[in-house]
Design a protein that fits this description.
Oligomer: single chain
Number of helices: 12
Strand order of the largest sheet: 1-7-2-5-8
Distance between the termini: 53 Å
Number of domains: 2
Helix content: 40-55%
Shape: globular
CATH topology of the largest domain: Jelly Rolls
Largest sheet: 5 strands, antiparallel
CATH superfamily of the largest domain: Regulatory protein AraC
CATH class of the largest domain: Mainly Beta
């Protein structure tokens, strides 16, 4: 994703004042004077978006994106298919979908032309929202969590967030921050008892098969020769195929997954940094520190210190 310039449009109505008949018009008509966002392939990895709510044009991404924030998607029509952590996952209209965007994610297919909402939430804000630990862990383990299909209230609320954040009023920004956290809490409650979904295995391209293989085996010692051989390909052919499909090398893709794994452990555990390094698949602490700083622009220790969730408040005792 990338932020393009935002054009001003006619004074927008607050969500509660939007006539219901307008909800039947495509978003591209209702927001015809808002500049829609598109993914910028030149955007640096892990460049933060901050707290945003924007309208995006559905389009395939030529390479994966990564930013250390929670991403929330809402489509009003059609569908999006992501390659997320080596799996193809489809998001359907009217379902609020949440995933950790530090995991490589790439839109590889879509249906429909209507723009869709993208909300980004800094990881620290997500961790302090108070979601159940089981939901937090599911998301930080790479699961895309989706709520049940919603009514028009979600679309109205996302429209209001988009307008208020675009206007830049600090009080409204704080209100949006709290409302986004409240929506995440409701989503967490709704899916807390649902089992981890088993996504069907679609027919994958050769390049997708390589990405899936890496996503499932990055903690092991991997070389281009082993990856290619285990997928029935010649090493040089596999490397060229992967670069053409995803715009990056297999080595860089492996490092991305290992760093994402380390980020999750640094945030959710008290494991020593050397144990985090080896658990993520690195073979030496020096290589881990070098790779982590190259990707995140800070050391693992600094990352842990700035992203740890605050200690939970003690539960109230029930009065007899």
């Amino acid at each position: 994703m990338t932020a393009g310039s935002t054009a001003h449009h006619d004074p927008a109505m607050v969500a509660s004042e939007i006539p219901l008949f307008l909800l039947h018009l495509p978003l591209c008509v209702r927001y015809s004077k808002v500049a829609l966002k598109r993914f910028d392939t030149a955007r640096p990895e892990f460049q933060p978006y901050g707290l945003t709510c924007e309208l995006w044009t559905p389009a395939p991404m030529s390479r994966p994106d990564r930013h250390n924030e929670i991403e929330v998607n809402l489509l009003t029509a059609g569908s999006l298919t992501y390659l997320l952590g080596g799996r193809r996952i489809a998001i359907e209209a009217s379902r609020v979908a949440v995933f950790w965007a530090a995991i490589p994610h790439q839109i590889v297919a879509f249906e429909g032309q209507d723009p869709y909402f993208v909300v980004t939430v800094p990881l620290s804000g997500f961790l302090s929202a108070g979601l159940e630990l089981s939901i937090v862990n599911r998301i930080l383990h790479g699961e895309l969590v989706m709520d049940a299909p919603s009514d028009a209230s979600d679309e109205l609320k996302f429209q209001q967030w988009e307008r208020e954040l675009r206007e830049g009023d600090p009080t409204c920004e704080r209100a949006v921050r709290l409302e986004v956290q409240a929506r995440l809490l409701r989503l967490g409650r709704a899916v807390s008892n649902s089992p981890t979904p088993r996504y069907p295995e679609p027919t994958l391209s050769r390049a997708d098969q390589l990405a899936c293989y890496i996503a499932r085996n990055y903690q092991e010692p991997l070389t281009s020769e082993r990856i290619a051989a285990d997928n029935g390909l010649h090493a040089n052919y596999a490397m060229n195929l992967f670069r053409r499909a995803f715009g990056t090398t297999m080595t860089a893709f492996i490092t991305q997954h290992r760093v994402s794994h380390a980020q999750r452990l640094l945030v959710t555990s008290d494991d020593p940094i050397v144990e985090v390094a080896f658990a993520a698949g690195f073979r030496s602490l020096s290589r881990f520190n070098e790779a982590f700083k190259a990707v995140c622009s800070c050391s693992p220790r600094e990352f842990r210190g700035s992203h740890r969730s605050p200690a939970p408040l003690p539960e109230r005792r029930k009065e007899a």
